[in-house]
Design goal:
38% of the residues lie in helices and 26% in strands. The protein is an alpha/beta fold. Strands 3-2-1-4-5-6-15 form a seven-stranded parallel sheet, sandwiched between helices. A seven-stranded mixed sheet has the order 10-11-12-7-13-14-16. Strands 8-9 form a two-stranded antiparallel sheet. Helix 6 packs across helix 12.
Length: 334
């Protein structure tokens, strides 16, 4: 298998997590020298230079791979180019985009090609897309009709990577939510509210910032209404040009950042809640990708473009992640 964008911050987490599970990928990217700053060659990990501007180089890197993981953003620029070659060589594809427009383009443009090639395509298998979808899917089990899904994220800080900043500059598309069963523009100014996160976080001011979880969740759970929020303090960190990049403080390369993702599902009078908390939104993407990769390598998937919650058994996957990476709580009530 191949991890494209392996010289990026999140890509390096993905490579390391796969290796810990005994899955040694090829580390691919645009610059071989930059790739080797992570010591991949010394660690016995093959590297491959490949560029989205050179399909032949990607074809050389991807040929023979069962799965291609794309961790190179902005995905509005990379997803289609990487995906086309992955499908051409018969490889499954996973990416970690938080960009709504990239997810929508993948669903719209690649379903037929994926079915014809017999491969599985999974966009947004990261913190904002994949984790939110797994929580929403687990909380929605056995509900035929869903009235509302609300997602709220609390970050105690957000030190964005250079890739996150580039993506923010590139991604100028109107943000979408779901209203009355349809994807519609969020509107301006975005809604604000106070969110009651579980203790010890408590009541926090949040603003609607819908990301890739919206088209992902809408694709298969089809709620009548769906919106996602982010706490205001983390937004201030993100928009401040002087906020530094994340600093590794442990052997796994994680920062001190703590997160809580809180998903509320309403169906009539029934209310369900799924909460996940953990450390470092970039690092937690790696086990999410690894769970998807393992399922694809094991042949437990159907062809086509799938949401993370369609590929993976949501509750069981959250149980696995809860052993080492997350604290997870699922509750229900009237």
């Amino acid at each position: 298998m191949v991890v494209y964008g392996a010289s990026g911050h999140t890509g390096s987490f993905v490579v390391d997590e796969l290796c810990r599970r005994g899955i040694v990928p090829i580390a691919a990217g645009r610059n071989a020298d930059r790739l080797d700053t992570y010591g991949y060659t010394r660690r016995g990990i093959a590297i491959a230079e490949a560029s989205i501007d050179d399909a032949a180089s990607m074809r050389r890197a991807f040929t023979g791979a069962a799965v291609v993981v794309n961790s190179a953003g902005p995905f509005l620029d990379t997803a289609a180019a990487v995906l086309e070659v992955a499908i051409e060589v018969g490889a499954h594809y996973v990416d970690i985009t938080a960009e709504q427009a990239s997810v929508q383009a993948t669903f719209a443009q690649f379903e037929h090609a994926a079915l014809q090639a017999g491969v599985t395509v999974v966009p947004a298998m990261g913190f904002f897309g994949g984790l939110a979808d797994l929580l929403a899917t687990a909380a929605s089990e056995d509900l035929p009709v869903i009235d509302h899904i609300d997602v709220a994220v609390f970050l105690d800080s957000w030190h964005p990577t250079a890739g996150t900043r580039r993506t923010g500059e590139r991604n100028t598309m109107p943000r979408l939510i779901v209203t009355d069963g349809r994807l519609v523009p969020l509107g301006y100014p975005p809604p604000k509210r106070q969110w009651a996160f579980p203790a010890p976080v408590g009541d926090v001011d949040v603003t609607a910032v819908p990301l890739s979880e919206v088209p992902i969740i809408a694709h298969h759970l089809r709620p009548a209404n769906l919106v996602a929020f982010l706490n205001d303090d983390s937004l201030r960190d993100l928009t401040d040009p002087d906020t530094p990049q994340p600093i590794a403080v442990d052997a796994l390369g994680r920062s001190t950042q703590r997160f809580v993702m809180d998903v509320h599902v309403t169906a009539g009078t029934l209310k369900r809640r799924a909460v996940a908390s953990g450390r470092d939104i970039y690092a937690i993407t790696a086990p999410l990708v690894a769970e998807a990769t393992q399922r694809l390598l094991d042949g437990r998937s159907s062809a086509g473009v799938l949401a993370p919650g369609e590929l993976l058994p949501a509750a069981a996957t959250l149980d696995v992640l809860a052993r080492d990476y997350l604290d997870v709580q699922l509750t229900a009530g009237e």
